[in-house]
Design goal:
The protein is mainly α and 282 residues long. The chain contains 10 helices and 4 strands. Helices cover 48% and strands 10% of the residues. A hairpin with a 2-residue loop joins strand 3 and strand 4 (179-188). The two termini are 38 Å apart.
């Protein structure tokens, strides 16, 4: 998981550009809605904080209005494609190829944090567009709030994240074809000093996106990548190899941040001396 950065500029300007590319009756209808949509945009922007965003009311749109608003996103307008590109390129280079929701897949899609089925007026507001992978987009779907009004998912533009690791691992080692292979399981833990209320949102996020199970399923692939890096070092002693992996891990933390599941896995694997011994040059 990692924070996202918003693009520069006025959100309403992008809306006007997208609507400007519409033709026919739909273009006329959308143009007539610009003033009203600007007012809705102002509501979102004023309430775009962790404490207030969940209180933004759902509006009553006619089916025609809703279809027109959704078409702003569902079409292939040049202005929309340019906005998506700006959002992607605004992210930190080292992690822009990772989904913020999970830290596993590549963000080939955009999620509407506030579901566009409920909030079609924000279908192209860049505050509401989150670059994500297909798995997270599918699992999240149209989910928004719990029955008690609490949000279900982290908003990586505005929510605070811990600065300390939130994952603990248990690794069981098996021997297959003469090689040691880890079976990893992940648990979510609240760092000291991070509020219980804020951590409840992280727990909900992890549960709904099935992240612990997905990390477990991806762990073997990541183990192979780390083992290849260790073998390529051709170290002759555990001390030399561990120093190399410590430096490698430091760079990965700088790139991915302390919360990425790969960091937790690498740390745990590096603790296992027999694994390091198996990666030494004969």
């Amino acid at each position: 998981m990692h924070k996202l950065r918003r693009v520069a500029g006025v959100p309403g300007d992008y809306l006007v550009g997208i609507i400007g590319g519409k033709n026919g009756d739909r273009g006329v209808r959308l143009t007539s809605m610009v003033a009203g949509l600007s007012a809705h945009y102002a509501v979102l922007e004023a309430a775009y904080t962790p404490a207030r965003i969940s209180g933004i009311p759902v509006q009553a749109w006619t089916q025609v209005q809703k279809n027109d608003l959704l078409h702003c996103y569902e079409s292939t307008a040049k202005a929309l494609e340019e906005l998506k590109k700006l959002i992607t390129e605004r992210q930190v280079e080292g992690i822009r190829d990772l989904c913020a929701y999970c830290g596993i897949g590549a963000p080939r899609q955009f999620d509407h944090y506030m579901p566009k089925a409920k909030f079609p007026e924000f279908s192209v507001h860049f505050y509401n567009l989150v670059p994500c992978c297909g798995s997270c987009n599918g699992l999240k779907g149209e989910t928004w709030l719990k029955h008690n009004g609490a949000r279900v998912f982290i908003n990586f533009y505005i929510d605070s994240l811990p600065t300390s690791p939130i994952l603990e691992l248990d690794v069981q080692w098996l021997v297959k074809n003469g090689k040691r292979v880890p079976i990893a399981s992940f648990d979510l833990v609240r760092p000291a000093g991070f509020s219980t209320a804020k951590f409840a949102l992280i727990e909900s996020h992890f549960e709904k996106l099935e992240l612990l199970a997905r990390y477990r399923d991806q762990a073997h692939t990541e183990f192979l990548a780390l083992r290849d890096a260790a073998l390529a070092r051709e170290a002759k002693t555990v001390g030399v190899l561990r120093k190399f992996l410590d430096n490698y891990l430091e760079r990965r933390v700088e790139t991915l941040g302390p919360l990425n599941w790969r960091i937790a896995l690498h740390r745990k694997l590096e603790e296992h001396t027999p694994f390091l011994q198996g990666c030494l040059k004969p």
